[in-house]
Structure formats: structure tokens, C-alpha cells
Design a protein that fits this description.
There is one protein chain. By secondary structure, this protein is an all-alpha fold. It has a single domain (about 20-205), classed as Up-down Bundle (Alpha-lytic protease prodomain-like), CATH 1.20.1510. The chain has six helices and no strands.
Length: about 210
């Protein structure tokens, strides 16, 4: 995965209309996909789909927070990124614990549901990741949005592969393995975001005043 140290930070408020527009589109896609995927994950008994649905929910909150702090000083955007990073890491820990529990208590998920929904989610997340690619080297807040979108696209590829594995083996292990990998990816992404946000906070503790339009 990409290192959090490779991105540059900016001390000026960021309220680019194209950035806001991209966030609104991403927010709408993620809310819709969360609702679709959580229902499919529960109906199909797939831990990987449920984990990915929680990622969609977390990203929806991510985009909403980013919209709220767009135009504010970098110190406020760094604080928002810090909260998002911690939340992402905690979500990863929850998914990892749920996958371990399911290893002893869960059944075999439906491979057809996993595959169909996984492909649909992959298309959605790949589109969002491409749309946000231009913002990947911004401040901690922008980078947090990019990292979440990138991680989700990677996770969707893994879900589709897990569906093929469940179909081929007739067991739940491919589903649980992917859920575990997605959890670790979320934890690492959260650590990256927190690391950069902490670097931005001390030098910009006073920040700038919120821009008024």
C-alpha cells in the first residue's frame, strides 16, 4: 500500500467547487451501495459483503465530514482527518473480530450473491476512486478520502475472488479470509491517515479562519 509520507500538505483553505461536487457524487453512490450491500450480505450470509457494506457506510460519513470542513483552515481539516482515521482503524478491528467469530459459528455464504453484488460494488467504487484520483496528493483530509476509495476498490476485487473461492471449495474460508484482509487494510489505512493528520496539526494549531461565501 502507498505510504502516507508521500503526500504534500497545504496550509490554505480548500473549497474547490469541483472537490465539493466530487464529494457529493461519492456520498450518494456510497449511501446507495451501503443499503444494497448490507441487505445482500445478510441475505447471502457473507462476512466479506457485510464488511464491505460497513466500508460504504464509513465512507459515506467520510465524505459528509469532508464536505463539512471544506473551506476551513488546514488545522480543522486535519482534525477531521484524525477522527476519520481513528474510525477507520476501529472499523477494521470490528470486522476482524467478526470474521474470527464467524470462523467457528458461521455457515457457508451464497457464492452467487457474493459475486453479483461484488461486481456491482466494484464498478461503483472504481468509478469513485477514478473521480477522486486527482486529489490523492492533497492534505490529510483529501488523502483520507482517496485512501478510503482506493481501499474499497481493492476490497471489491477481493470480494469477487472470494465468491469464486466459495463456489469452488463449498466452504466459507475464502469469504472469511477476504473479510480479514479487508479489516487489516482498513486498520493500515486508518494508521496512514492518523499519521499525516498528526504531522499537520502541530504546525497549524491556530489555522486560518473559516472562509465565508
Amino acid at each position: 500500500m502507498a505510504s502516507g509520507s508521500c503526500c504534500a500538505s497545504s496550509s490554505r483553505p480548500t473549497d474547490d467547487p469541483s472537490w465539493r461536487r466530487a464529494l457529493w457524487i461519492a456520498f450518494g453512490i456510497n449511501v446507495t451501495m451501503f443499503a444494497a450491500e448490507i441487505m445482500a450480505g445478510l441475505a447471502g450470509g457473507s462476512r466479506a459483503l457485510q464488511a464491505n457494506a460497513l466500508d460504504f457506510l464509513a465512507d459515506s460519513a467520510n465524505y459528509a465530514i469532508s464536505l463539512g470542513v471544506a473551506g476551513m483552515a488546514v488545522a480543522w481539516r486535519a482534525r477531521a482527518a484524525l477522527v476519520k482515521g481513528i474510525t477507520l482503524a476501529l472499523l477494521g478491528l470490528y470486522v476482524l473480530a467478526a470474521a474470527l467469530w464467524a470462523a467457528w459459528h458461521g455457515g457457508t455464504p451464497r457464492a452467487d450473491v457474493m459475486g453479483a453484488v461484488g461486481i456491482m460494488a466494484l464498478v461503483a467504487n472504481a468509478g469513485v476512486a477514478l473521480m477522486l484520483y486527482r486529489y490523492r496528493t492533497g492534505d490529510a483530509n483529501m488523502r483520507s478520502v482517496w485512501i478510503c476509495s482506493r481501499n474499497d476498490a481493492i476490497g471489491n476485487v477481493a470480494v469477487v475472488l472470494a465468491a469464486a473461492g466459495v463456489f469452488g471449495t463449498g466452504t466459507a474460508w475464502p469469504d472469511l479470509a477476504v473479510a480479514g484482509i479487508m479489516a487489516l487494510l482498513g486498520i493500515w489505512g486508518g494508521v496512514q491517515i492518523v499519521s499525516q493528520a498528526r504531522r499537520e496539526l502541530p504546525a497549524n494549531a491556530n489555522g486560518y479562519s473559516v472562509s465565508v461565501r
